[in-house]
């Protein structure tokens, strides 16, 4: 006797019928029709946008015979210069050319991409594509070549630059609405990877508002981007430019499936300022150093969830200082916009016109308040000063010892130097305070949302506080403020 495994036979696409005579007949199974969406066709988009995408080559002056970036292999040199910040390793040096005078001449420097913004010849690209170039050459898809002039000062913070060629009647791109862009949406890139002009690649939007530590939140895609694609357009299925391809994440230097594009709305805002008479980007500032708010700190001080930007220091005489902002404050809103991450604040402030009057919502000692601030123009950050005044270390009180600390009162000179009204100085650190990261010389400004003005107040607050729960401590370290949590011993 034998057994038939019906499931296995059906899996192989046959139906079994047992005849009365005892014979077995095999009949073909009805084919299964898979249902799904067809893949997009990009041919119309290429025909529509392709004529407005240009190849950009840059030259720099170098003595004949000297090694110039790209002199051996322009594409590979750009590859290593862009992503490793150095020339191609092991590249041989070229000696002087025979029968040639030793004079300065133009040498290839790099390759990139761009796209035509206006019919009269304004072209957008990345700042790093044209940075430091002596000469910029633009080649159109119809093989016409033009010398380009860099417009204004390329903006390194956003990596946006505008160049101008002397031509009219050019095909220009359409600008898309970044707010309509959705994660999972198909997008396409056109550029010149490794100098291969008019190369088309496609993929989907992997994420929006991707924070990489730069000034802008990027569009993340899985579109294949390589050196030479920099400055080229990211295009949606309506044929509109939604971003400028700018960076890739890579451990090898080549494409690994993660690419980043500058949102086109931010790029256009920069381009308009570059084309203005000033020729540079003007950004707002309020004069603070900030940090992220952690989940534990947010819960312990009553903020709820970790939102906002923790103010670690306030520059003396800055707009924030004049507005009454203090180190340890948490800015939760700026002009009514919620600060979800600390990096949101410099973007919002930076996009505010200097001289404008703005409103900040600040969380301080368990409650919120509104502060008005007049925006100044951004300037180089000042170095952080630190104080290191030595004094005899007093013995810690029983209350202070219970949280692993010994503290002392601040002198009037210390308060004036730190620009604070109160606080106590940490003289010794043990046990839980060590684990929290508190150091000798730190200035404790508040504990558990209560301001500390003296050792006596410190002892009173610590004596009342519940030591079975994490204790939030707001402290100053030099000119920087931060929250640390003293956790109960386990």
Structure description:
The chain is α+β, with helices and mostly antiparallel strands. It has 3 domains: 43-85 and 103-279, Thrombin, subunit H (Beta Barrel); 284-377, Pdz3 Domain, CATH 2.30.42; 398-486, Roll (Pdz3 Domain). Helix content is 17%, strand content 36%. The protein is built from 12 helices and 29 strands. The strands form 6 sheets. It has a 6-stranded antiparallel β-barrel with strand order 3-4-5-8-7-6. A hairpin with a 7-residue loop joins strand 10 and strand 11 (199-211). The longest helix has 11 residues, at 74-84. The protein is elongated, with a radius of gyration of 31 Å. It starts with 5 loop residues before the first helix and ends with a strand.
Attribute tags:
490 residues; alpha+beta; Thrombin, subunit H; 3 domains; 6-stranded antiparallel β-barrel; 29 strands
Strand content: 35-45%
Largest sheet: 6 strands, antiparallel, barrel
CATH class of the largest domain: Mainly Beta
Total beta strand runs? 29
Architecture of the largest domain, according to CATH? Answer: Beta Barrel
> Helix/strand/pairing class, anyone?
alpha+beta
What is the overall pLDDT average?
81
Helix content: 10-25%
